[in-house]
Specification:
five-stranded mixed beta sheet, 8 helices, 12 strands, 363 residues, alpha+beta, three-stranded antiparallel beta sheet
Length: 363
Protein backbone atom coordinates (compact mmCIF):
# COMPACT_ATOMS: atom_id res chain seq x y z
CA UNK A 1 0.00 0.00 0.00
CA UNK A 2 2.80 2.39 0.78
CA UNK A 3 4.27 1.74 -2.67
CA UNK A 4 0.88 2.54 -4.28
CA UNK A 5 0.57 5.83 -2.40
CA UNK A 6 4.14 6.71 -3.23
CA UNK A 7 3.53 5.98 -6.93
CA UNK A 8 0.35 8.08 -7.02
CA UNK A 9 2.03 10.97 -5.27
CA UNK A 10 5.03 10.78 -7.55
CA UNK A 11 2.87 10.67 -10.71
CA UNK A 12 0.70 13.52 -9.45
CA UNK A 13 3.73 15.64 -8.67
CA UNK A 14 5.10 15.05 -12.14
CA UNK A 15 1.71 15.97 -13.66
CA UNK A 16 1.57 19.20 -11.69
CA UNK A 17 5.08 20.09 -12.72
CA UNK A 18 4.14 19.48 -16.36
CA UNK A 19 1.08 21.76 -16.04
CA UNK A 20 3.17 24.50 -14.46
CA UNK A 21 5.85 24.12 -17.06
CA UNK A 22 3.37 24.41 -19.94
CA UNK A 23 1.76 27.44 -18.36
CA UNK A 24 5.07 29.23 -17.97
CA UNK A 25 6.11 28.43 -21.52
CA UNK A 26 2.84 29.67 -23.01
CA UNK A 27 2.94 32.82 -20.90
CA UNK A 28 6.45 33.70 -22.09
CA UNK A 29 5.54 33.18 -25.74
CA UNK A 30 2.51 35.41 -25.41
CA UNK A 31 0.09 32.74 -26.47
CA UNK A 32 -3.28 32.30 -24.82
CA UNK A 33 -3.22 29.70 -22.10
CA UNK A 34 -5.78 26.91 -22.58
CA UNK A 35 -6.36 25.64 -19.02
CA UNK A 36 -8.22 22.52 -20.11
CA UNK A 37 -5.51 21.45 -22.53
CA UNK A 38 -2.79 22.20 -20.04
CA UNK A 39 -4.47 20.21 -17.26
CA UNK A 40 -5.19 17.28 -19.58
CA UNK A 41 -1.54 17.26 -20.60
CA UNK A 42 -0.44 17.12 -16.98
CA UNK A 43 -2.91 14.35 -16.19
CA UNK A 44 -1.75 12.39 -19.22
CA UNK A 45 1.86 12.67 -18.13
CA UNK A 46 0.92 11.64 -14.59
CA UNK A 47 -0.96 8.60 -15.93
CA UNK A 48 1.96 7.60 -18.11
CA UNK A 49 4.33 7.89 -15.18
CA UNK A 50 2.00 5.89 -12.96
CA UNK A 51 1.49 3.14 -15.60
CA UNK A 52 5.25 2.90 -16.12
CA UNK A 53 5.80 2.48 -12.42
CA UNK A 54 3.01 -0.09 -12.28
CA UNK A 55 4.54 -2.12 -15.09
CA UNK A 56 7.94 -2.04 -13.44
CA UNK A 57 6.41 -3.06 -10.11
CA UNK A 58 4.29 -5.86 -11.57
CA UNK A 59 7.07 -8.43 -11.64
CA UNK A 60 10.04 -9.48 -9.55
CA UNK A 61 13.12 -11.50 -10.37
CA UNK A 62 14.18 -13.99 -7.71
CA UNK A 63 17.87 -14.85 -7.90
CA UNK A 64 19.18 -18.41 -7.71
CA UNK A 65 19.83 -19.55 -4.15
CA UNK A 66 16.98 -17.52 -2.71
CA UNK A 67 13.18 -17.41 -2.37
CA UNK A 68 10.74 -14.50 -2.06
CA UNK A 69 7.74 -14.54 0.23
CA UNK A 70 4.79 -12.53 -1.18
CA UNK A 71 2.75 -10.46 1.28
CA UNK A 72 -0.54 -8.83 0.32
CA UNK A 73 -1.93 -6.37 2.80
CA UNK A 74 0.34 -7.97 5.42
CA UNK A 75 -0.77 -11.53 4.71
CA UNK A 76 1.46 -14.18 3.12
CA UNK A 77 -0.10 -15.29 -0.15
CA UNK A 78 2.72 -17.03 -2.05
CA UNK A 79 6.40 -17.97 -2.14
CA UNK A 80 8.26 -17.20 -5.36
CA UNK A 81 10.93 -19.60 -6.60
CA UNK A 82 14.05 -18.39 -8.44
CA UNK A 83 13.17 -16.78 -11.80
CA UNK A 84 10.70 -14.21 -13.16
CA UNK A 85 7.49 -13.96 -11.12
CA UNK A 86 4.43 -11.68 -11.59
CA UNK A 87 2.60 -9.90 -8.82
CA UNK A 88 0.03 -7.18 -8.28
CA UNK A 89 1.89 -3.89 -8.59
CA UNK A 90 2.14 -1.74 -5.49
CA UNK A 91 -0.01 -4.21 -3.55
CA UNK A 92 2.11 -7.36 -3.33
CA UNK A 93 5.33 -6.98 -1.39
CA UNK A 94 8.16 -9.52 -1.32
CA UNK A 95 10.58 -10.54 1.43
CA UNK A 96 13.66 -12.26 0.00
CA UNK A 97 15.54 -15.00 1.87
CA UNK A 98 18.79 -16.57 0.80
CA UNK A 99 18.67 -20.38 0.83
CA UNK A 100 22.44 -20.61 0.40
CA UNK A 101 24.77 -21.01 3.35
CA UNK A 102 24.91 -17.94 5.57
CA UNK A 103 27.91 -17.36 7.84
CA UNK A 104 27.79 -15.77 11.29
CA UNK A 105 31.19 -15.28 12.94
CA UNK A 106 32.56 -13.81 16.16
CA UNK A 107 36.09 -12.42 16.49
CA UNK A 108 38.12 -9.81 18.33
CA UNK A 109 37.98 -7.54 15.27
CA UNK A 110 34.69 -8.03 13.34
CA UNK A 111 35.56 -5.31 10.81
CA UNK A 112 38.16 -7.49 9.08
CA UNK A 113 35.95 -10.59 8.88
CA UNK A 114 34.52 -11.71 5.53
CA UNK A 115 31.50 -13.42 7.07
CA UNK A 116 27.94 -12.40 6.11
CA UNK A 117 27.22 -11.36 9.68
CA UNK A 118 29.96 -10.50 12.17
CA UNK A 119 30.03 -9.91 15.90
CA UNK A 120 32.43 -9.60 18.83
CA UNK A 121 33.81 -12.62 20.68
CA UNK A 122 31.95 -14.06 23.69
CA UNK A 123 33.24 -13.56 27.23
CA UNK A 124 32.61 -16.30 29.77
CA UNK A 125 34.30 -18.31 32.54
CA UNK A 126 35.29 -21.93 33.09
CA UNK A 127 34.04 -24.20 35.86
CA UNK A 128 37.14 -23.37 37.93
CA UNK A 129 36.65 -19.62 37.57
CA UNK A 130 39.11 -18.74 34.80
CA UNK A 131 38.00 -15.91 32.50
CA UNK A 132 38.05 -16.88 28.81
CA UNK A 133 36.87 -15.61 25.43
CA UNK A 134 35.37 -17.74 22.66
CA UNK A 135 35.58 -17.14 18.93
CA UNK A 136 33.36 -19.33 16.82
CA UNK A 137 31.70 -19.70 13.41
CA UNK A 138 28.12 -20.72 12.55
CA UNK A 139 27.07 -21.76 9.06
CA UNK A 140 23.34 -22.27 8.46
CA UNK A 141 20.61 -22.29 5.81
CA UNK A 142 17.02 -21.05 5.73
CA UNK A 143 14.64 -23.81 4.65
CA UNK A 144 12.72 -22.66 1.55
CA UNK A 145 9.57 -24.51 2.63
CA UNK A 146 9.68 -22.70 5.97
CA UNK A 147 10.08 -19.21 4.48
CA UNK A 148 6.39 -18.29 4.99
CA UNK A 149 6.51 -19.25 8.66
CA UNK A 150 9.79 -17.44 9.15
CA UNK A 151 8.24 -14.22 7.77
CA UNK A 152 5.35 -14.49 10.21
CA UNK A 153 7.41 -15.58 13.24
CA UNK A 154 10.79 -13.87 12.85
CA UNK A 155 10.88 -11.38 10.02
CA UNK A 156 13.57 -10.66 7.50
CA UNK A 157 16.92 -12.43 7.15
CA UNK A 158 18.81 -9.92 9.37
CA UNK A 159 16.09 -10.33 11.98
CA UNK A 160 16.45 -14.14 11.77
CA UNK A 161 20.19 -13.82 12.37
CA UNK A 162 19.68 -11.42 15.26
CA UNK A 163 16.87 -13.31 17.00
CA UNK A 164 17.98 -16.91 16.47
CA UNK A 165 21.54 -17.33 15.28
CA UNK A 166 23.20 -14.60 17.32
CA UNK A 167 21.18 -14.88 20.51
CA UNK A 168 21.08 -18.68 20.75
CA UNK A 169 24.70 -19.26 19.81
CA UNK A 170 26.07 -16.68 22.23
CA UNK A 171 23.91 -18.00 25.07
CA UNK A 172 24.87 -21.64 24.54
CA UNK A 173 28.57 -20.88 24.10
CA UNK A 174 28.62 -18.79 27.27
CA UNK A 175 26.62 -21.39 29.22
CA UNK A 176 28.08 -24.70 28.10
CA UNK A 177 31.73 -23.66 28.31
CA UNK A 178 31.19 -23.20 32.05
CA UNK A 179 30.95 -27.00 32.33
CA UNK A 180 34.65 -27.42 31.53
CA UNK A 181 37.82 -26.57 33.40
CA UNK A 182 40.42 -24.22 32.03
CA UNK A 183 42.93 -27.04 31.63
CA UNK A 184 40.49 -29.02 29.49
CA UNK A 185 39.96 -26.11 27.13
CA UNK A 186 43.58 -24.90 27.21
CA UNK A 187 44.91 -28.27 26.07
CA UNK A 188 43.11 -27.77 22.74
CA UNK A 189 40.84 -30.78 23.12
CA UNK A 190 37.59 -28.84 22.74
CA UNK A 191 35.76 -31.38 20.59
CA UNK A 192 33.43 -32.41 23.41
CA UNK A 193 32.48 -28.80 24.21
CA UNK A 194 32.00 -28.01 20.53
CA UNK A 195 29.75 -31.02 20.00
CA UNK A 196 27.58 -30.18 23.01
CA UNK A 197 27.04 -26.61 21.74
CA UNK A 198 26.36 -27.84 18.22
CA UNK A 199 23.74 -30.29 19.48
CA UNK A 200 21.81 -27.55 21.30
CA UNK A 201 21.99 -25.14 18.36
CA UNK A 202 20.79 -27.80 15.93
CA UNK A 203 17.65 -28.36 18.00
CA UNK A 204 16.96 -24.63 18.25
CA UNK A 205 17.49 -24.04 14.54
CA UNK A 206 15.20 -26.90 13.51
CA UNK A 207 12.39 -25.44 15.59
CA UNK A 208 12.79 -22.09 13.80
CA UNK A 209 12.98 -23.49 10.27
CA UNK A 210 16.77 -23.34 9.91
CA UNK A 211 19.35 -26.00 9.10
CA UNK A 212 22.64 -25.89 11.03
CA UNK A 213 25.41 -26.76 8.58
CA UNK A 214 28.44 -26.25 10.81
CA UNK A 215 29.46 -24.95 14.21
CA UNK A 216 33.11 -24.57 15.15
CA UNK A 217 35.01 -23.15 18.11
CA UNK A 218 37.92 -21.50 16.35
CA UNK A 219 39.80 -20.29 19.42
CA UNK A 220 39.53 -20.13 23.20
CA UNK A 221 41.35 -17.12 24.65
CA UNK A 222 42.90 -17.06 28.14
CA UNK A 223 44.28 -14.28 30.32
CA UNK A 224 48.01 -13.57 30.28
CA UNK A 225 48.27 -14.54 33.96
CA UNK A 226 46.80 -17.98 33.28
CA UNK A 227 49.03 -18.49 30.25
CA UNK A 228 52.09 -17.64 32.35
CA UNK A 229 50.98 -19.99 35.12
CA UNK A 230 50.47 -22.81 32.63
CA UNK A 231 53.83 -22.10 31.05
CA UNK A 232 55.57 -22.18 34.44
CA UNK A 233 53.80 -25.41 35.29
CA UNK A 234 54.83 -26.89 31.97
CA UNK A 235 58.44 -25.84 32.52
CA UNK A 236 58.43 -27.47 35.96
CA UNK A 237 56.91 -30.61 34.51
CA UNK A 238 59.61 -30.66 31.84
CA UNK A 239 62.27 -30.24 34.52
CA UNK A 240 60.82 -33.14 36.48
CA UNK A 241 60.82 -35.27 33.36
CA UNK A 242 64.40 -34.22 32.64
CA UNK A 243 65.55 -35.13 36.15
CA UNK A 244 63.69 -38.40 35.93
CA UNK A 245 65.35 -39.15 32.62
CA UNK A 246 68.73 -38.30 34.09
CA UNK A 247 68.08 -40.65 37.00
CA UNK A 248 66.99 -43.34 34.61
CA UNK A 249 70.09 -42.71 32.53
CA UNK A 250 72.33 -43.01 35.60
CA UNK A 251 70.54 -46.20 36.58
CA UNK A 252 71.00 -47.52 33.08
CA UNK A 253 74.69 -46.62 33.07
CA UNK A 254 75.13 -48.36 36.42
CA UNK A 255 73.38 -51.48 35.21
CA UNK A 256 75.37 -51.36 31.99
CA UNK A 257 78.64 -51.11 33.95
CA UNK A 258 77.58 -54.04 36.15
CA UNK A 259 76.60 -56.03 33.10
CA UNK A 260 79.92 -55.25 31.41
CA UNK A 261 81.85 -56.28 34.55
CA UNK A 262 79.87 -59.50 34.81
CA UNK A 263 80.42 -60.16 31.13
CA UNK A 264 84.15 -59.52 31.48
CA UNK A 265 84.34 -61.82 34.53
CA UNK A 266 82.41 -64.48 32.67
CA UNK A 267 84.71 -64.05 29.71
CA UNK A 268 87.78 -64.48 31.90
CA UNK A 269 86.22 -67.49 33.62
CA UNK A 270 85.47 -69.07 30.28
CA UNK A 271 88.97 -68.28 29.09
CA UNK A 272 90.44 -69.93 32.19
CA UNK A 273 88.18 -72.91 31.72
CA UNK A 274 89.15 -73.00 28.09
CA UNK A 275 92.86 -72.89 28.94
CA UNK A 276 92.46 -75.59 31.59
CA UNK A 277 90.41 -77.71 29.24
CA UNK A 278 93.00 -77.12 26.54
CA UNK A 279 95.83 -78.15 28.83
CA UNK A 280 93.88 -81.17 30.03
CA UNK A 281 93.11 -82.10 26.49
CA UNK A 282 96.76 -81.59 25.56
CA UNK A 283 97.89 -83.82 28.46
CA UNK A 284 95.28 -86.35 27.52
CA UNK A 285 96.37 -86.36 23.91
CA UNK A 286 100.03 -86.58 24.96
CA UNK A 287 99.28 -89.51 27.30
CA UNK A 288 97.27 -91.19 24.58
CA UNK A 289 100.13 -90.64 22.16
CA UNK A 290 102.67 -92.03 24.62
CA UNK A 291 100.40 -94.96 25.42
CA UNK A 292 99.92 -95.63 21.74
CA UNK A 293 103.69 -95.34 21.20
CA UNK A 294 104.39 -97.72 24.08
CA UNK A 295 101.78 -100.11 22.78
CA UNK A 296 103.21 -99.88 19.31
CA UNK A 297 106.70 -100.43 20.71
CA UNK A 298 105.54 -103.40 22.80
CA UNK A 299 103.78 -104.90 19.80
CA UNK A 300 106.90 -104.42 17.75
CA UNK A 301 109.03 -105.98 20.51
CA UNK A 302 106.60 -108.87 20.84
CA UNK A 303 106.66 -109.41 17.14
CA UNK A 304 110.46 -109.23 17.20
CA UNK A 305 110.62 -111.69 20.08
CA UNK A 306 108.22 -113.95 18.30
CA UNK A 307 110.31 -113.84 15.16
CA UNK A 308 113.46 -114.33 17.25
CA UNK A 309 112.01 -117.28 19.09
CA UNK A 310 111.01 -118.88 15.84
CA UNK A 311 114.52 -118.44 14.43
CA UNK A 312 116.39 -119.94 17.45
CA UNK A 313 117.71 -123.48 17.21
CA UNK A 314 119.76 -125.50 19.73
CA UNK A 315 122.84 -125.27 17.52
CA UNK A 316 122.41 -121.49 17.17
CA UNK A 317 122.03 -121.09 20.93
CA UNK A 318 125.17 -123.16 21.58
CA UNK A 319 127.04 -121.19 19.01
CA UNK A 320 126.00 -117.89 20.59
CA UNK A 321 127.01 -119.21 24.02
CA UNK A 322 130.42 -120.08 22.68
CA UNK A 323 130.75 -116.64 21.17
CA UNK A 324 129.69 -114.94 24.38
CA UNK A 325 131.86 -117.08 26.75
CA UNK A 326 134.58 -115.06 28.43
CA UNK A 327 136.55 -118.04 29.70
CA UNK A 328 135.02 -117.99 33.15
CA UNK A 329 132.95 -120.79 34.53
CA UNK A 330 129.63 -120.13 36.07
CA UNK A 331 129.24 -120.01 39.82
CA UNK A 332 127.46 -122.99 41.35
CA UNK A 333 125.49 -122.49 44.52
CA UNK A 334 124.51 -125.47 46.63
CA UNK A 335 121.60 -125.07 49.03
CA UNK A 336 121.23 -126.89 52.35
CA UNK A 337 118.95 -129.32 50.59
CA UNK A 338 121.62 -130.27 48.21
CA UNK A 339 120.20 -128.41 45.22
CA UNK A 340 122.62 -126.64 42.94
CA UNK A 341 121.96 -123.39 41.11
CA UNK A 342 124.11 -121.89 38.42
CA UNK A 343 124.38 -118.15 38.90
CA UNK A 344 125.58 -115.63 36.40
CA UNK A 345 129.25 -115.31 36.65
CA UNK A 346 129.29 -111.51 36.93
CA UNK A 347 127.11 -111.47 40.09
CA UNK A 348 129.37 -113.50 42.39
CA UNK A 349 132.67 -112.71 41.00
CA UNK A 350 135.14 -112.22 43.78
CA UNK A 351 136.61 -108.80 43.80
CA UNK A 352 140.01 -108.56 42.38
CA UNK A 353 142.71 -108.77 45.02
CA UNK A 354 144.28 -105.48 45.85
CA UNK A 355 148.08 -105.84 45.62
CA UNK A 356 149.83 -105.26 48.90
CA UNK A 357 151.75 -102.04 49.20
CA UNK A 358 155.44 -102.34 48.56
CA UNK A 359 157.43 -101.58 51.64
CA UNK A 360 159.61 -98.58 51.43
CA UNK A 361 163.27 -99.45 51.99
CA UNK A 362 164.91 -97.90 55.03
CA UNK A 363 167.49 -95.29 54.35
Amino acid sequence: MAQLISAIMFATLIGILVILFLGVVLARTGKKINARTTILSGVAVALIIFMSLAIVNSYTVVEAGSVAVVKRFGQVVAVFEPGLNWKIPFIDQTVVYRTQEIVYETSDNPDISNADYTDYQVDTATSDGQQITARYTVRFRIRPQEAANIVNDLGTEPEVVEKVVKQNSRVWVRTLLRNYTASQLYSGDIREAQESIEEQLRKDFEQEGLDLVFFGLRQIGFTDAYKQAVENKQIEAENIITRKNQAEQAKYEKERAITQAEAEAEKQRLERIGVAQGEAESIKLKAQAEAEATLTKAKAQAEANELLSKSLTPELINWQAVLQWTGQYPTVYTTNGGQQMILPGDLFNAPAATPAPTPTPAP
